[in-house]
Specification:
58% of the residues lie in helices and 20% in strands. It has a three-stranded antiparallel beta sheet with strand order 1-2-3. It has helices at 3-23, 30-76; strands at 82-88, 97-106, 109-114. The chain contains two helices and three strands; from the N terminus they run ααβββ. The chain has 117 residues and is α+β, with helices and mostly antiparallel strands. Strand 2 and strand 3 form a beta hairpin.
Length: 117
């Protein structure tokens, strides 16, 4: 039972320190108050920076997504395709296969569609 008095002794010291702090009527010092205000201000500044960075990233991604939707809708439109011939070659074929098609492109996107005859 040698461990029990040590726990009580530690608990007694903590209680004594808490009572001493409660009896101290002077409160926190000016340095402690300024340090607490500084820490709160730094936290608020970091939070504001994270919010602004997140808003900027969201706006940039929204612009990119809008451009992507515009490009995809242009590719899906049935008008404006250029007439091309798609050539398929294979090592086993003696003659290449040529297929008339329409070519739709927008920036880096390309789509082929068989030409209706």
């Amino acid at each position: 039972m040698s461990g029990q008095p040590v726990k009580n002794n530690t608990l007694q010291r903590l209680c004594f320190a808490a009572r001493q702090k409660a009896r101290n009527a002077s409160g926190d010092s000016l340095v402690e108050a300024i340090a607490a205000i500084l820490i709160a201000a730094l936290g608020a500044a970091l939070l504001a920076t994270m919010v602004m960075s997140s808003a900027s990233a969201t706006m940039r991604n929204q612009e990119r997504l809008s451009a992507l939707y515009t490009a995809e809708s242009t590719l899906a439109s049935p008008s404006g395709g250029a007439e091309v011939t798609v050539v398929i070659q294979s090592g086993s074929l003696t003659m290449p296969i040529e297929i008339p098609a329409l070519l739709y492109s927008e920036d880096e996107y390309i789509r082929y569609e068989p030409k209706a005859e």
